[in-house]
Amino acid sequence: MTHYSKPLARLVEELQKLPGIGPKSAQRMAFYILKMPLNEVQKFTDAILEAKEKIKYCRNCFNMSSENPCEICVDDKRNRAIICIVAETKDLIALERTREYKGSYHVLQGLISPLDGITPDDLRIKELFERLKNEDIEEIILALNPSIEGEATSMYLTKLIKPLGVKVSRIAFGLPMGADLEYADELTLARALEGRREV
Amino acid sequence: MPHYRTRAINLKSHNLGEADKIMVMYSREHGIIRCVAKGVKKTKSSLGARMQCLTANNLLIAKGRNLDIVCQAENLECFDKVKTDLTKLSYSLYCTELISHFGTEGDSNSAGIYDLLFETFKNISVFKTTEEVLWAVLRFKLKLAEYLGYAVELETCARCNKTEQKYKTYHFFCADTGGVVCSECFLKSRKTFEIDNRHIKLFKDALNYDFPFESEYFDKNLLFSSFNILKEFISLRSDKKLKTPAIIELLC
Ligand SMILES: [Zn+2]
Ligand SMILES: [Zn+2]
């Protein structure tokens, strides 16, 4: 870092804090920014600051939004008796892109991860149970990754929600569209077989 | 690029860029290894499912300049039953954490430790009761301690090396010294637990048998107290605080 002048070193250092950005990429980005016209850089920093100031977590579902409650929570056309549980806002966005789902959401803001010491108390699980208590919820859909952390969280939530008499389902895992059965790995295939449905 | 083959169990992974992961694995041939698995976060990656934690694979790895790269993975065992039960999963992750803390690159006992972890996951997946799962974890801890060079002392006092004079059996286990202590040394010992001959018999049998073959072993109090004694014994030998024991208490 000693070959950089101080302000440049600071910029490189800050950029490196972004996920997936190493020293090489940070340096490339820093030089690019320095070559940009000043008003472009201004627009860039404004966008960061504005997003940071205006985007908050919805107090109901913990989705990231500039409205509180968020657009989804106030939308009367959506079915509030169904909650789809996701780990992060980015998963919610992915599900919204399908245009298939018309219920509400609850964003946990993470997954239970024993090896990282992330416990149920670190997630928005308490708030989920508040909703189950106060709202008329008929069904919970678990849309969590098929990873160890996703499995642990799904099992934990199922164990707690089932006794409340609420229907709990989990999204199916199986073959991606356009995949070839012959080349599918045995784990995915086993899951797809397990999650088969009558036609 | 030179290649090598090894059998390994996935312990942990870290995200690397958009679609790659750095895998931390315990291999039968080389102990702890760290490799890059490319593209595994994409839904179409066939490597994806095989790179899930608590999965054993036969790997073909290319030597890289910094990190080695997983070229091929042939699944040996995915321990599916472990992943679909919260109790089994929590205890298995505890074993995983112990291996990642105590395992090293190029362990001289890597084959034994790998086989032990594989056997433990296999047993936990077929076992039906919490008692059996606890037995598997106790056996795992006792055998791992042996491989790491601090086998639990069960015959003579771990402090003075003499046999108990006053009583027929030992009544204390010292997690600090790592074994049973006599009634005289007990007064000078720290981190002690009250035990009786059932604990000693259980520890000895768990080292020899992978199944709780006697009905007296299906005693939750005995198993939980044994688990806690060994948990303390192992935690005292770890330089970092273990994270999974707290989760076990919350989830199980
Ligand atoms: Zn909302
Ligand atoms: Zn003694």
Walk me through the structure.
Chain A is α/β, with parallel strands linked by helices and 199 residues long. Chain A is 43% helix and 13% strand. Chain A contains 8 helices and 6 strands. In chain A, 21% of the residues are buried. Chain B folds into 2 domains: 3-77, Beta Barrel (OB fold (Dihydrolipoamide Acetyltransferase, E2P)); 80-251, Recombination protein O, C-terminal domain (de novo design (two linked rop proteins)), CATH 1.20.1440.120. Chain B has helices spanning 47-50, 80-83, 86-102, 110-126, 130-148, 183-186, 197-208, 220-235, 244-251, and strands at residues 3-16, 20-27, 31-37, 56-62, 68-77, 172-174, 179-181, 192-194. In chain B, a hairpin with a 4-residue loop joins strand 6 and strand 7. Chain B has 252 residues and is of the alpha+beta class. Helix content of chain B is 40%, strand content 22%. A 5-stranded mixed barrel of chain B has the order 1-2-3-5-4. A 3-stranded antiparallel beta sheet of chain B has the order 7-6-8. Classes of the chains: A alpha/beta (199), B alpha+beta (252). The complex binds zinc ion (ZN) (2 copies). One zinc ion binds at residues 58, 60-61, 63, 69-70, 72-73 of chain A.
